[in-house]
Amino acid sequence: MASSEANERPRLISAMELVGAGGYDKLQIKKIPYREPNSDEVVIRVKFAGLNFADLMRRQGLYSPAPKFPYVPGFEASGVVEAIGSNVSQLAVGDRVVAFAGDGMWADLVTLSNDRCFKMPDNMSFEDGAALLVNYITAYHILFEFGNLRPNKSVLIHMAAGGVGIAAIQLCKTVKNVTVFGTASGSKHNIIKEAGCTHPIDYHTEDYVAEIRKISPNGIDIIMDPLNGEDSVRGYNLLKPLGRIIYFGAANVAASGENRSLFTAFKTWYKCFSTNSLSILSDNKSIAGYHLGYLLKYFDSGKEIALETIDELFRLYNEGAIKPQIDSIYPLSKVGEAMQRMHNRQNIGKILLQPDDEANATKNNDTTTE
Amino acid sequence: MASSEANERPRLISAMELVGAGGYDKLQIKKIPYREPNSDEVVIRVKFAGLNFADLMRRQGLYSPAPKFPYVPGFEASGVVEAIGSNVSQLAVGDRVVAFAGDGMWADLVTLSNDRCFKMPDNMSFEDGAALLVNYITAYHILFEFGNLRPNKSVLIHMAAGGVGIAAIQLCKTVKNVTVFGTASGSKHNIIKEAGCTHPIDYHTEDYVAEIRKISPNGIDIIMDPLNGEDSVRGYNLLKPLGRIIYFGAANVAASGENRSLFTAFKTWYKCFSTNSLSILSDNKSIAGYHLGYLLKYFDSGKEIALETIDELFRLYNEGAIKPQIDSIYPLSKVGEAMQRMHNRQNIGKILLQPDDEANATKNNDTTTE
């Protein structure tokens, strides 16, 4: 589009908007105005964006922080820098970057602060870049900050075949002699075993607590719990002395249907683990809450922690120690289907979204010889 | 005493008994029967025993686990092996040892399981040995297990001039560039500064939260809280993102008088920090409870953790990285005075107790030229 034309009518971009809390019909592709970068911002042409469980929770109206409706969701993306503000020096047009923010990534062009964008390692694909940030930062902070993972420890990973789950398994394998228990349905056990899970457990057919006690009678050192509700109590009780459980979600709150269920939410709340500074005294255990969204949104020092972690993750990627498992790629317009796949826990690893123009271009490139 | 005489009437030892919950009059020196070691036990002639805040809580009836009255308190001691059971091979008569157990150390002879006794490094004094185990294991587990202390972190240590406090300061200094905030009354600031405390704060004249915010506006990475009650909430709120607070006592519960105050206890409970697995989710913080007594009493793996830690502490002692600060030594018969000193928070470092015969012998050695 010539710039003379752009001056006559506002330039529009394609974006997926969440227009309210509810079912998949609340997600609508819209044409919205392009926003020029201010002096500290950059514009990225999105190659791929990540789908996260938090996006499903937000759609059901069960997740904060969230902007007011309507807004463009999307925490993370990979892409190419298309324009930069006058103050931006560490990025240039044409740079391949990954980016993350509180929202806004499900669009073909994204205008955002330059400090949310990071140059990708040269050998990283756009798919891997879009799959890396949220899942691996989450798993890294849980395992190495709160979890204090060191050699010879045992770790329980719920939803082990999901994006965070596979990231966590791979990160566990960077430490000597870590025993990884992972829950996933039986059909996914081969994949999580290949990733490094020592003991896959099918939560459909087995009681994970009983199975773990058979192998490790004293319990587990570190538990990653994205489920909450009654699992939060079962996990706490399963901890070894000096063990740590890190709550980082409430998947049990999310209704399996399209809309939220207040009954499911209430049951999760009612059954969740409660304690206080006196009653925890004699337990020799630790609980933690982890939430990447709040970490970045409300704390200046949250950003610093994330920056250090991204450096470390790029290093591990370059060494071949970690590699995102991509489950599937959907065009943005099919985000409902992508969400249903995640809700049904059919995915193995990361689900990516692709702007429809990019998806069509990829298709055309596949079928033409130009 | 000749052994022929011992055969005629039971051999008696001197011990300090706690005969009930209450004031100092509940602590009484008694002659109790000597117990021969069974095949796995050893007998130690006690040189020094440690006094811990938990002993004060127990006397007030505020601490569990505790045996039934009457019993001989005392968690730790140093001494010399005087007899061994038939199965004991790793210790010999004459060995210099440190020992710890759930109770029983406040006596001139102690019969206990050999696996609670550890040969002291050759260059360790009996005073240092008796001052080491409870305080340094506690500080070590809190800082390095739950706290995940690493370079460039900040630590808040309450009661920084106490036994655990000084141990913790010294352990912080074994890690690069750790900023240590310590609360203690002004008269003790020189000592804790010498030990390595970066910012001593006088809790009598200053609001520690306000003082810390002035220096470190984002808060603290690791807080060691032996106070509980309203301090448990203030500490939680003072944590940085991904910060950790470890509760390991409830000094605020202990009445400053001789007897427990139910009002003080209730106030501490009422004001203590409460959370659950859902409300902690968005906080990006961790809470932990630490209790060495339960760690050793109820968990097989607790012992293993302690053994590894003792090895590490002996190594640090031999390197000169840690060295117990001995506040004072009281004869066992004056334990009430020793407790009052601790209750008034007059001590700087560890208070030790010495069996009266040993104390008298020391005195005689000091005044004779034999």
Automatic annotation (TrEMBL), chains A, B:
Question: Which is a Pfam family this sequence falls into?
Answer: ADH_N
Q: Which domain of life is it from?
A: Eukaryota
Q: Which PROSITE patterns match?
A: QOR_ZETA_CRYSTAL
> Which keywords does this chain's UniProt record carry?
Oxidoreductase
Domain Enoyl reductase (ER), by residue range, is 22-353
GO MF, any single term: zinc ion binding
- Note whether Oxidoreductase occurs among the keywords: yes
Q: Which family does it belong to?
A: Belongs to the zinc-containing alcohol dehydrogenase family. Quinone oxidoreductase subfamily.
Mind telling me what this protein is named? Enoyl reductase (ER) domain-containing protein
Q: Which organism is it from?
A: Rotaria sordida
